[in-house]
Amino acid sequence: MSTIDVRDDVIAAPFPPTTTDSATFDFDVAIVGLGYVGLPTALAYHASGSHVLALDVSSRRLREIAARGADLIESDRERLDTALRTPAAFRLTGDVAELGRAAAIVVCVPTPVDHQQVPDLVSLRAACATVVAAARPGQLIMLTSTTYVGCTHDLVERPLRERGFEIGRDVFVTFSAERIDPGNVGFAQEVVPRVVGGATPRCEEAGALLLSRYAARVHRVSSLATAEMTKLLENTFRAVNIALANEFADICGALDVPVTEVIEAASTKPYGFMAFYPGPGVGGHCIPCDPHYLLWQLKALHVDAGVITEAMTRIAARPRRVVERIRDVLGRAGKGTLGARILVVGVTYKPDVADLRESPALEIIDLLIETGAEVQYVDTHAPHIHLDSGRERDSLADPGAFHPDVVLVHTRHHDADLAWLDDRAVVVDGTYRSTDIAGRVLL
Question: Which entry of 128, 151, 203, 286 is annotated as an active-site residue?
Answer without folding.
Answer: 286
